[in-house]
Every structure is written in C-alpha cells, then in structure tokens.
Amino acid sequence: MGNEPPEITPEEDAFSILETVTDGTEVFTVEATDPDGDNEAITYSFTEDYPFAIDDGVVTVADSEELEADDSFELEVEATDELGASSTETFTVEIDPNLPPNSMKMNIALLLLN
C-alpha cells in the first residue's frame, strides 16, 4: 500500500480582506483529506514566510502592519499527512485599502450632523 499525499480541496482559492484588519483576524480555512488514513492527523504549514499564520488549517492575520506592503499575497499552503506525504495549494488574499462599512457610515453620520 502506497502513501498518497493529502488532497487539498478548496471551496474557494481567492479571498479579500480589509487593509485595516487586526492581528488574529480569520481569513479562511484550508481543508484536506488523506486518502490513506486519518484526516485529523494532517498538519498545515506555509512554504514561505507571510504576514499570516496557520493553525489546524485556519489562516489568520499574524502581522497586520505588513498588509500595507502588497496589494495581494499568494499563500502556498502545504498539507502533510502522518507518514510525511504532502501536497500544496496556492491561495490568493487580496488586500482592500477601503475603510470598513461601519467607518463609512460613521463618517456620513458625522457629515450630516455638521
């Protein structure tokens, strides 16, 4: 019996977040299945350093100050099974410099009051 790598099956592979998000903000979740074994034993990691963190497949913002450096990030995620077989998938995170809707509403409200 061979050791097949986990299969990463994204529902989406592109996401957008506001440039103003804070550290710890959840961006997306990666899921993989292991054709040979236990899906719970799959570990997730990045192939490079990014201003994001990944824990049990949940990708979060790790360094929000670095988000201003680029318009988007191509995150290469690696899923590794308990026997060491791995696969990768690339996800795009677009950085939106616009203010969040609540801030926009607040600015409009302030204008109306003046």
From TrEMBL:
UniProt-listed GO biological process terms: cell migration; homophilic cell adhesion via plasma membrane adhesion molecules
Gene3D superfamilies attached to this UniProt entry: Cadherins
Major localization listed first in the record, in broad terms: membrane
GO cellular component: catenin complex
Keyword Nucleotidyltransferase among record annotations: no
KW Ubl conjugation (keyword) present: no
Occurrences of domain Cadherin (ranges): 9-103
Short name of any one Pfam family annotated for the protein: Cadherin
Gene Ontology molecular function: beta-catenin binding; cadherin binding; calcium ion binding
Signal peptide boundaries: none
Cell compartment(s), UniProt: Membrane
Keywords: Calcium, Membrane, Plasmid, Repeat
SUPFAM superfamilies in UniProt: Cadherin-like
PANTHER family the record matches: CADHERIN 23 (PTHR24027:SF438), CADHERIN-23 (PTHR24027)
Record-given protein name: Cadherin repeat domain-containing protein
Organism in which the protein naturally occurs: Euhalothece natronophila Z-M001
Organism taxonomic ancestry: Bacteria, Bacillati, Cyanobacteriota, Cyanophyceae, Oscillatoriophycideae
